[in-house]
Amino acid sequence: MEKDNIRNMLLKIGRQIVQEKGPEALTARKLSEASGCSVGAIYNQFNNMENFIVIENYLTLEQLSRRLNIVKETQNPYFDMNNLLNTFVDFVLKNKNLWYLLYNFHLRKEKHKYSFAYLRIVGRIVRRLNNLIYRIVPQMEQPERILSSQVLWLTLFALSSLLTKDILDSFSKINRQTLCQIMLNTYIAGLTVLEKKE
pLDDT class for 198, splitting at 50, 70, 90? Predict the structure, then answer.
């Protein structure tokens, strides 16, 4: 089997392990057992499991980006922003284990250097938010708008960790989608009011 085929096969099996058994089940030994490849062969392909997880996370972000790209824009930017949010929340809820793998890696490996391709995917998502903020608050200066879109993405990213676990249920039965919508619309309303005051 060619090297690319082996890599793709291992990545596919790794995703299945995470989806079915959770992120903690993704170890070199479990991947070896499920794929029939030796642990040495896995390390030969990826050097270590950290690199393997980064590629899995890249694939998850790429999948999310494709889903967000399907969301069509209308004449109403508020509707579009909420539609984008709903698509994001729906994606996270349908891919809880894969998303937790991504979120947890960023939490634990805060000094990891990500590839240009990886950062470009994140940048694509943030730019989509930036464009929508521009449509909602066109008078906002570009540096402030870029910062606002980054803050919005980081807030949604932080909030998304709560979507992957049942921790919210011990505090409140509030719908996860509603929670994210209230946060988003409060933030957008705040930006709009602040710009009007200036």
Answer: low
Question: What CATH code is carried by the domain that includes residue 23?
Answer: 1.10.10.60
Tell me the average pLDDT across 102-108. Answer: 89
In this prediction, residue 140 carries a pLDDT of: 92
The residue among 183 and 164 whose pLDDT is bigger is 183
User: Does 97 lie in the same domain as 17?
Assistant: no
**How confident is the model over 64-82, as a mean pLDDT?**
95
Q: How many domains does the chain have?
A: 2
Q: Please tell me whether residues 32 and 66 are part of one structural domain.
A: no
Mean pLDDT of 158-176: 75
Range of the domain at 102: 49-197
Give the type of residue at 42.
I
- Phi/psi for 175 (5° steps) reads -65, 135
Q: The tokens 């793998």 sit on which residue?
A: 101
pLDDT score of 178: 86
Give CA separation, 181 vs 24, 38, 88, 127, in Å.
30, 46, 11, 20
